[in-house]
Amino acid sequence: MIYLDLFIGFLKVGLFSFGGAYGAIPLIRDVVLHYGWMDEEALVNMIAISESTPGPIMVNLATYVGCSKAGVPGGILATLAVVSPAFLFIILLVTLFNRLAGQKKKWMKAAFNGIKPCIIGIILAMGVSMIGKNCMTPVLNEKDILPTVLTIVLATVYFGFRKIYKKKMSPIVLILIAAFTGIVVYGI
Question: Which residue segment(s) compose the domain that 73 sits in?
Fold first, then answer.
């Protein structure tokens, strides 16, 4: 039964996650919490780890959840379920675009223009939700203000770098700064 749940759950993620990894996070959250594979805190930690390791977040999370719930076969199954829809969709799109090459199809451009704001909204909503749960909740509960302070410090470093050097900071550098800061603040 766990294999079927993993396959169906991550197939849903693969089928309905548009806009890349950040757009998929709300759907991953819904699936993982629905099946009880992780709690909210563990999921947020895994998103952070998946973001800082090579590979797409969806694949990393699917592999981790699958392996942790059903061993290596579960990891393979969850990974295949999450990547198969995109793989098949890309093959279909390439075939379709090759057939329509040279033809101007306004409906295709209109569809893509309609999807863009939706993806931006999904990513923004998830970002606001994660900030609220991980930064504002501790402040409101007065338990631990450190996540909020660290978020502000990292945002200041990122935007300060952009202001001073007139270019974007590499995400790798920001991840390394965040990891080092976490080690210093929270200890080993």
Answer: 2-122
- How far apart CA 121 and CA 116 sit, in angstroms, is 9
Q: CA separation (Å) from 52 to 110, 121, 133, 134?
A: 35, 23, 20, 18
The set of residues, in sequence order, having a beta carbon less than 8 Å from that of 11 and lying 6+ positions away, is 81, 82, 84, 85
Which parts of the chain fold into alpha helices (H)? Answer: 2-16, 20-35, 40-52, 57-100, 106-131, 137-141, 146-165, 171-186
What total number of domains does the chain contain?
Answer: 1
The closest of 160, 168, 154 to 48, measured between CA atoms, is 154
pLDDT tens for 111-148 read 778 888 888 888 788 778 777 776 666 555 555 677 77
Tokens of 79: 């990974």
CB-based contacts of 158, cutoff 8 Å, min separation 6: 169, 174
Residue 75 lies in a domain: yes
Q: Give domain status of residue 39, yes or no.
A: yes
CA 156 to chain CA centroid, Å, is 23
Structure tokens, 143: 């338990």
Q: Please report whether residue 169 resides in a domain.
A: no
Does any domain span residue 130? no
Model pTM? Answer: 0.58
